[in-house]
Design brief:
Low-confidence stretches of chain A: 1-32
Oligomer: heterodimer
Largest sheet of chain B: 7 strands, mixed
Radius of gyration of chain B: 42 Å
Shape of chain B: elongated
Helix content of chain A: 40-55%
Chain lengths: ~160, ~600
């Protein structure tokens, strides 16, 4: 047998004044078809725990927002740094590749230039003792002792005052 | 009362109405809904449990394995920069270097565009005519080799096109910027990138570069991420094999040698410049040579450096070694006088001087100055033959030098019994015939005279160095060992200096400097007898006051009546020493002999 669900009229505690209002003469009650409007429950003082939680929320919410605002750029920076590192690494690799390429080209050029220079027609003379200048070695100079001069007194102690 | 009854009826009907409305809003529970509820609940519970179990399985049991798979997917190994380490000379000039090249394959069945469009897209990058490409694409459906030796830039441009059905395979090509200058030492690699001659062959395992083993992570765009990178320098593994050779000196030696080979229409020649302190070679020129990048065109006989691989009878350049042996044996003193009668007979065999002349009573120094064969025979007759033989073995005659270059041949020498029993053996050995050595061994023996009696091992490799110049590994060489006394070698050096000042070595004289030297002109043996062909050589110790280098030149089969060690080989050595003086900035020991450079000062009008 299904049971009917009834509105819980006792959900709120009924004050004495309300009770007295309810025991009005039926004639008066019948005149108003709609049931009496529910009154707001008087505001109760929140418990200490609740107050603490409320305070905590007041602090934590702006903190969370603030932290989010701070962390987002840091996260973005860290991600972009890695990306830019990767791009720079690639650039470095390209530069190193070019360096290796130029090194090989330089060596080939050096070889070709030397080969041309070695040919008699180039007019270049190989280096030898006849076209070198050898200067006699300078005799080693004796170490000059460092002369310690007495410190110059830049602010001599004045015996008489300059002015009054 | 009636009014009241009416009100009651109204109230009841209103209540009934509310009750009916509430009944309508309440869910209608069909029969069996409890059971259904349980099934749904059970389903959800089992589902949830299944999810948790699966999560547990993935995270705990399979976590490590899956994590590794994920890591592998987003990470890759760094591409190697070379497959073989580069080879550089003592000044860092590149002698051999790897270049990555690419081989292009196409798979027409994977083309998303028409063959003609693909040919048009590829043609300007790989520089091949469009028609040829189209024709090539029609030869198969997959795996058609198009071209090879594409550069890294070309490969990058091809990748940018993002075409399907195009495959690039990396290969390596070895470049030799010095061409034929160093090929007799460095060697070459074949099409499989394997060394087949020179150091490329003998140091194969050493030269093989270790590919980067560490993996690094990359992002979706292919950029590498720094998190897995090693903290070591990026080029820490990029080692290079440093040689002791000097390219400039090698040039000088090669050109001087080349000139004389051409002048005397000689078969071949070699020049060795050795640092006598440690046996390191500053130059090792062997002519004729070949271009290692076109090894397939060269005569295979050239792949073995003949200064290391071929034997010859040293002739008179061996006389100073014999003098040192006789001095060490106590058989002679530096001021001993011997009699040169011009020709003698030993064991029934006639022996005479090169020019057939007799020099009479001559000092040991004079024996070297005039290169008297008879004088040498008389000197070595004073040394007991078993001692002489054992000494020759001690200095490595008939053995290899232990150099780090490949294909070294051990010298040849008669066996002990024959040497001791037949006086002709010791007699011919006394002027450098009857046994054979390699040119590199002759340089080694003279280095021992120059450095005061220590036998050093000739070598060309300094070691594997990292980019910051730190030595990573070095070849193991035979340690230096004493073979001659210091006093004997000092005497021999003085005698050799006199050879250049007053004797056959005059053509090598350099004003302002003092060097010791000895010429050599030996008949070549062939078919069991000596032929008319000769092999000329000259060895120098420079500077003679405090020797640093031994310079040895040998020219095989020079043509002409004036082809001797003094005319063919000595000028080569002189030219090399002159370059050495400039390179090392060696001041003259006798500056008064130098020509004053003429300085022309133009007067301003």
């Amino acid at each position: 047998m299904p049971t009917a669900i009834r509105p819980n009229l006792r959900a709120q505690p009924v004050s004495r004044s309300e009770r007295s209002a309810r025991v009005e003469p039926p004639s008066k009650r019948l005149s108003t078809v709609m049931p009496a409007p529910l009154q707001l429950v008087p505001k109760q003082q929140p418990s200490r725990k609740l107050a603490l939680l409320l305070k905590l929320r007041k602090v934590s919410t702006p903190t969370a927002v603030l932290l989010t605002l701070v962390i987002l750029p840091i996260y973005g920076w860290s991600a972009s740094t890695q990306l830019s590192w990767g791009k720079r690494y690639q650039h470095l690799e390209e530069l190193r590749r070019e360096e290796r390429h130029y090194q090989a080209q330089t060596e080939t050029l050096k070889h070709d230039l030397t080969q041309n220079a070695m040919q008699n027609s180039s007019g270049l003379v190989p280096q030898g003792p006849n076209n070198n200048l050898f200067l006699p070695a300078m005799p080693s100079r004796p170490n000059v002792p460092v002369v310690t001069t007495p410190p110059v007194q830049t602010n001599p102690a004045l015996s008489t005052p300059l002015a009054y | 009362m009636r009014v009241s009854a009416t009100n009651n009826v109204k109230l009841k009907s209103r209540r009934a109405e509310i009750a009916a409305r509430l009944r309508n809003t309440r869910p209608i529970n069909l029969p069996g809904y409890h059971q259904r509820l349980v099934w749904v609940w059970l389903l959800l519970f089992v589902g949830q449990f299944g999810l948790i179990a699966r999560l547990f399985w993935l995270q705990v049991n399979q976590g490590e394995q899956l994590g590794q798979i994920a890591k592998d997917q987003r990470s890759r190994k760094l591409s190697p920069k070379f497959a073989r380490h580069p080879i550089v000379d003592r000044n860092g000039n590149i002698l051999a270097k790897d270049e990555p090249t690419f081989r292009l394959f196409v798979h027409p069945k994977m083309f998303k565009k028409s063959r003609a469009d693909m040919a048009v897209a590829l043609s300007p990058i790989i520089k091949m005519p469009t028609e040829e490409l189209v024709r090539l694409f029609e030869t198969g459906k997959t795996g058609i080799p198009v071209t090879r030796n594409l550069s890294e830039e070309t490969a990058a441009n091809l990748r940018k096109l993002g075409l399907d059905g195009v495959e690039l395979n990396q290969e390596w090509s070895r470049t030799y910027p010095q061409k034929d200058l160093m090929s007799s030492i460095v060697g070459y690699v074949d099409g499989e990138h394997l060394g087949q001659a020179g150091l490329e062959y003998s140091l194969q395992t050493w030269l093989k570069a270790k590919p980067p083993s560490e993996k690094v992570s990359e992002d979706g765009n292919g950029y590498l991420l720094p998190n897995q990178f090693s903290t070591r320098p990026l080029n820490a593994d990029e080692l290079s094999l440093k040689l002791t050779l000097d390219t400039r000196l090698q040039w000088s030696a090669t050109m001087a040698l080349h000139k004389k080979l051409k002048q005397y229409n000689a078969l071949r020649g070699a020049v060795v410049v050795m640092d006598v302190r440690d046996g390191s070679l500053r130059a090792l020129a062997a002519e004729p040579s070949y271009d290692p990048s076109q090894f397939y065109k060269a005569n295979p006989a050239l792949f073995r450096n003949w200064a290391i691989a071929d034997l010859y009878e040293p002739g008179s350049t061996f006389k100073p070694i014999n003098i040192a042996i006789a001095l060490d044996a106590g058989a002679i003193k530096p001021d001993t006088v011997v009699y040169d009668e011009g020709h003698i007979s030993v064991g029934g065999w006639p022996i005479q001087n090169n020019d057939g002349s007799s020099h009479g009573a001559i000092s040991i120094t004079k024996v070297l100055e005039v290169s008297s064969n008879i004088g040498m025979v008389h000197i070595m007759e004073r040394v007991k033959r078993p001692f002489y033989y054992d000494f020759l073995k001690k200095i490595g005659i008939g053995e290899i030098t232990g150099t780090d270059m490949p294909f070294e041949t051990a010298g040849s020498m008669k066996d002990r019994t024959q040497f001791v029993d037949y006086p002709i053996e010791a007699a011919t050995n006394s002027f450098g015939q009857g046994f054979s050595v390699t040119p590199i061994q002759m340089a080694q023996l003279h280095a021992a005279i120059a450095n005061g009696g220590m036998m050093v091992t000739p070598h060309v490799t300094e070691g594997l160095f990292n980019p910051s110049g730190k030595l990573i590994s070095k070849t193991e060489l035979i340690s230096p060992r004493r073979v001659f006394s210091e006093a004997s070698t000092a005497s021999v050096r003085q005698m050799m200096a006199s050879v250049v000042e007053n004797g056959t070595g005059k053509p090598a004289k350099i004003p302002g400097y003092r060097l010791g030297g000895k010429t050599g002109t030996a008949q070549k043996a062939g078919g069991g007898t000596y032929r008319n062909a000769r092999i000329t050589s000259f060895v120098a110790t420079f500077p003679v006051e405090s020797p640093r280098y031994v310079i040895f030149a040998v020219v095989d089969e020079p043509k002409g009546d004036d082809a001797f060690g003094s005319t063919v080989a000595a000028p080569i050595v002189k030219s090399v020493i002159e370059t050495l003086i400039s390179l090392e900035g060696m001041p003259p020991s006798h500056p008064e002999e130098l020509k004053k450079p003429t300085v022309v000062v133009k007067k301003s009008p």
